Amino acid sequence: MSTTPDISLGTRFPSLAGATGWLNSQPLTPAELTGKVVLVDFWTFTCINWLRTAPYVRAWSRAYRDDGLVVIGVHTPEFSFEHEIDRVRPATEERGIDYPVALDNDYAVWNAFENHYWPALYFLDADGIIRDRHFGEGRYEQSERVIQRLLGVEREPVPVEGLGVEAEADWDHLGTPESYLGYVRAEHFASPDGAAFDERRAYELPALLPLNHWALAGEWTIGREKVVLEQAGGSIAFRFHARDAHLVLSAGTGREPIPFRVLLDGEAPGASHGVDVDEQGNGLLGDGRLYQLVRQHDAVRERTIQITLHEPGAEGYVFTFG
């Protein structure tokens, strides 16, 4: 959590001029938006916390557009591959985002808003003044009431149901935090003999993987923001306690799809497979994005997930859970 102060309520609409491009719109300026209530949503397409808020922001955009609401998504990338517009555009389409999206590859808009979070919502009135803000998930009804108050309308909140990776987390049973694999933010690495940074090395899984720890097997390079598979057949294992398990993956520079297999406690996941694998645990790594590997439908308990990738070049970035 950042200790840097957040932008103050009552601040005038910060500049959008630093955007490196726009989707679904010509470039917009605060002056052009005078007279409109504006909701600014900072996001990045691999972020599970943003993905679970996306159905609400979509619904508000559609429900209040005719009342004068303009939603602007600001896509500020977390990982290197998220800078590429050819990856952002299909992610926007897949999520049904039809409102304007500012591409913020240089973090200029992020810095103008003094933002520190994905997702982050900023609510601006028709005079271009920030009247409210919210960071992270939740508070949906209150946020919608803020929109209504700024628009001068009053009605029942719009019905929203998140599906697939957009479904709300099972907070009561979520016992594992997100875990980055690149060495700048990695924790709880459990392969014997530890990690070697920025060099190819053979790793093994430990005999026992403690809860909330992860390990590698096979030939990998651990870099600043990712681990890269150097030889086919390498695995990543994680011991977790959550309903859902996700992993941000990319096929790397070659972009050729890479088949993979997921095991849960050493067996095919069966009914506990995520949306990106079948009951036998088979999946295909294509676009760089978040992959849902596990969704448990019975009692949530500690499990060990192991993903084996069948071609070199695969990149792993972060595990997230829900």
Defining key terms:
Jelly Rolls; 17 strands; alpha+beta; globular; Glutaredoxin; 322 residues; 14% helix
Your description of this structure?
With about 325 residues, the chain is α+β, with helices and mostly antiparallel strands. The protein has helices at about 50-65, 85-95, 110, 140-150, and strands at about 20-25, 35-45, 70-75, 100-105, 120-125, 130-135, 180, 200-205, 215-220, 225-230, 235-240, 245-250, 260-265, 280-285, 290-295, 300-310, 315-320. It has two domains: about 20-165, Glutaredoxin (3-Layer(aba) Sandwich); about 170-320, Jelly Rolls (Sandwich), CATH 2.60.120.260. It has four helices and 17 strands. Strands 7, 8, 9, 10, 11, 12, 13, 14, 15, 16 and 17 form an eleven-stranded antiparallel β-sheet that branches. A six-stranded mixed β-sheet has the order 1-4-3-2-5-6, covered by helices on one side. The radius of gyration is 21 Å and the shape is globular.
Gross CATH architecture of the largest domain: Sandwich
Number of strands: 17
Mean model confidence by pLDDT = 96
- Total domain units: 2
For this structure, the quaternary state is: single chain
Percent in helix:
10-25%
| Largest sheet properties | 11 strands, antiparallel
Please identify which CATH superfamily of the largest domain we are dealing with. Answer: Galactose-binding domain-like
Q: Quickly name the level 1 CATH class of the largest domain.
A: Mainly Beta
Strand content: 25-35%
Return residue spans where pLDDT drops below 50 for at least 5 consecutive residues.
Answer: none
Count of individual helical segments? 4
CATH topology tier name of the largest domain: Jelly Rolls
